[in-house]
Amino acid sequence: MQPGGQPDMAQILAQAQQMQQQLMAAQVEIAETEVTGQAGGGLVTATVKGSGELVALTIDPKVVDPDDVETLQDLVIGAISDANMQAQQVAESKLGPLAGALGGGGGLPGLPGF
Length: 114
Fold this sequence. Notes:
Radius of gyration: 21 Å
Oligomer: single chain
Distance between the termini: 28 Å
């Protein structure tokens, strides 16, 4: 604070710039992070990047049954959903401290509650 109770604008701007740099670094780190989800006890695995890009899908031949395609489809969807949930948790853990510094509740796109 400056004399007279006025906030030091230069200090506020420096803090905002530092938070912006931290946010950008966290976003890059999240986008490059890969997480793997699974379904059916690991019979189907899906790997996604923090950006949401599906980069790998592995299906154990034991679950490939031409007479039961629906089960395989459910397992694939389950594995991708699990991987996306883990990617969301990574994003929340990396951005959570920054969201708190921003006052919480308002304004990190794509992150409910941040």
